[in-house]
Design goal:
Blueprint (H helix, E strand, L loop, with lengths): L9 E7 L6 H14 L3 E5 L2 H7 L2 E3 L27 H13 L4 E6 L1 H14 L3 E5 L15 H22 L2 E6 L6 H9 L4 E3 L6 H14 L5 E6 L7 H12 L3 E5 L11 H19 L5 E6 L2 E6 H4 L8 H10 L2
Parallel strand pairs: 1-2, 1-4, 4-5, 5-10, 6-8, 6-9, 7-8
Antiparallel strand pairs: 2-3, 10-11
Helix pairs in contact: 1-9, 2-3, 3-4, 5-6, 6-11, 7-8
The structure holds 6-O-phosphono-beta-D-fructofuranose.
Length: about 325
């Protein structure tokens, strides 16, 4: 690591948890906003794992060139167990202090932001969070970075599956991501014109789906698309398809979209959101804020204490749920 220029401050940045399209755009925005204020930026490789191992480097403007449109994260990411312990966070803090970092910006999902809160409280190193996750399940922001791209990726596949489903007159189950969140399923289901939505927790889905399908096909329906939220059991669509097919004697196919939803070039919406939140995180630091997440609510930047993130669970808005009930059946 290079020595710090006298009189300057230095912020560290890492990406953590599941990658999300727009993370690179966020890193770029952070670097450029910091540069404008004369702040140095150090990058941490592989999320909390790299922080604990001391994989830290001084970033230059070249590092953030030509990344605004790229998927994944140039810094790498990880899901790390050690950072969940006090000991792990202590090692991480020592590495940051040795690198002369004055603050840490963490881009990640709910779990990463909970880790950010512990780190901020225990180490005294000002920590700022940015919501980056395709799941859109983080309180304190209308959208998390990556969600818009993920639903558009899912939608592209749904539209393609519709072509083949229609050609063969088949029933299709399309499984989308979101272990603890139904957001991708609901919004891609609405946008994709799905016939039915299966969300974890609805025990009666087989009865409801069969009651809808049988008369619809009798009345001339040619095919059907069912969107399934993966929930805690990715791949459960295969069993669902088997059960439904045998019950109504209809051939079906399954398509699991999986990690395709995590990659790809971020949409314009995600790039703008990522740019806003990256710059706002640097602003929050220069204004002396610590232990906060920067989000966007009703098109305004909002700072939420990191300690609030774990206290509430973000559920899909009532309006969007109602919309899905009106349009998907
Ligand atoms: O990042 C969120 C998420 O994509 C969930 O929607 C998904 O269930 C999970 O991560 C998959 O995680 P992993 O990449 O570790 O399999």
């Amino acid at each position: 690591m290079d020595g710090k220029k006298p009189g300057t401050s230095r912020i560290a940045v890492l990406t953590s948890g599941g990658d999300a399209p727009g993370m690179n755009t966020t890193i770029r925005a952070i670097y450029r906003a910091a540069e404008e204020c004369g702040i140095e930026v150090i990058g941490i490789r592989k999320g909390f794992s790299g922080l604990i191992k001391g994989e830290i480097f001084l970033m230059t403007r070249r590092d953030v060139a030509n990344i605004i449109h790229t998927g994944g994260t140039i810094l790498g990411t990880s899901r790390n167990e050690e950072f969940k312990t006090k000991e792990g966070r202590k090692i991480a803090a020592e590495n940051l202090k040795n690198a002369k970092a004055d603050a840490l910006i963490i881009i990640g999902g709910e779990g990463s932001l909970i880790g950010a809160n512990h780190f901020n409280e225990e180490t005294g190193i000002p920590t700022i969070g940015i919501p980056g996750s395709i799941d859109n399940d983080i309180p304190g922001t209308d959208f998390s970075i990556g969600f818009d791209t993920a639903i558009n990726t899912a939608l592209e596949s749904i539209d393609k599956i519709r072509d083949t489903a229609l050609s063969h007159g088949r029933l299709f189950f399309v499984e989308v991501m979101g272990r603890t969140s139904d957001m991708i399923a609901i919004e891609s289901g609405i946008a994709g014109g799905a016939e039915f939505l299966i969300l974890p927790g609805n025990e009666k889905y087989i009865d409801e789906l069969c009651d809808m399908l049988v008369p619809a096909f009798k009345a001339g329906k040619k095919y059907a698309l069912v969107i399934v939220a993966e929930g805690e059991n990715p791949g459960w669509s295969f069993q669902i398809a088997k059960d439904v097919s045998s019950r109504i004697s209809m051939e079906s196919r399954v398509c699991i979209l999986g990690h395709t939803q995590r990659g790809g070039s971020p949409t314009a919406r995600d790039r703008v959101l990522a740019s806003k939140l990256g710059v706002s995180a640097v602003n929050a630091y220069t204004k002396g804020f610590a232990g906060v997440m920067v989000g966007e609510v009703k098109r305004s930047i909002k700072l939420t204490p990191l300690c609030e993130i774990m206290k509430s669970v973000k559920k899909p808005e009532k309006n969007i749920v109602r919309l899905s009930q009106i349009l998907i059946h």
